[in-house]
């Protein structure tokens, strides 16, 4: 069993970022689901390694990235506020 939690969803592009937490493991997996991306490709090299490339609108990607940083409380890593100060994750004001 596992739980699925949405981190970000954009209804216009249908970009969906979510986490899956297996109940019996400590590893959390992150997924990005894109419906009808502008472009996508899949490659496989001679050693059998597979790569996936998808194209997403940069404005949607910006909002997705910010949602992920907030969800994971990564503000310090990107130079932002980290506590109750204005703009921080624990701030009571927008």
Word description of this protein:
The chain is an alpha+beta fold and 94 residues long. It has one domain. Helices cover 15% and strands 34% of the residues. The protein is built from one helix and five strands; from the N terminus they run βββββα. It has one helix spanning 58-71, and strands spanning 2-10, 15-22, 29-33, 40-44, 50-54. A three-stranded antiparallel β-sheet has the order 1-2-3. The radius of gyration is 16 Å and the shape is globular. The N and C termini lie far apart (36 Å).
- Arithmetic mean pLDDT: 84
Supply the helix-strand structural class. Answer: alpha+beta
pLDDT under 50 segments (min length 5)? none
* Total tally of structural domains: 1
How is the biggest beta sheet arranged? 3 strands, antiparallel
Q: Rough shape?
A: globular
Give the ordered list of helices and strands: EEEEEH
Count the beta strands.
5
Radius of gyration: 16 Å
Give the strand order of the largest sheet, numbering strands 1, 2, ... along the chain.
Answer: 1-2-3
Number of helices: 1
- The N- and C-terminal alpha carbons lie at a distance of 36 Å
> How much helix, percentage-wise, in residues?
10-25%
Strand content: 25-35%
């Amino acid at each position: 069993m596992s739980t699925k939690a949405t981190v970000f969803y954009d209804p216009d592009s249908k970009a969906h970022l979510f986490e899956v937490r297996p109940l019996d493991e400590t590893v959390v997996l992150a997924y990005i689901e894109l419906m009808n991306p502008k472009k996508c490709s899949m490659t496989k090299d001679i050693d059998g390694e597979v790569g996936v490339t998808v194209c997403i609108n940069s404005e949607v990607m910006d909002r997705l990235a910010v949602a992920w940083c907030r969800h994971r409380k990564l503000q310090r890593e990107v130079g932002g506020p980290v506590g109750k100060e204005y703009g921080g994750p624990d701030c009571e004001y927008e």
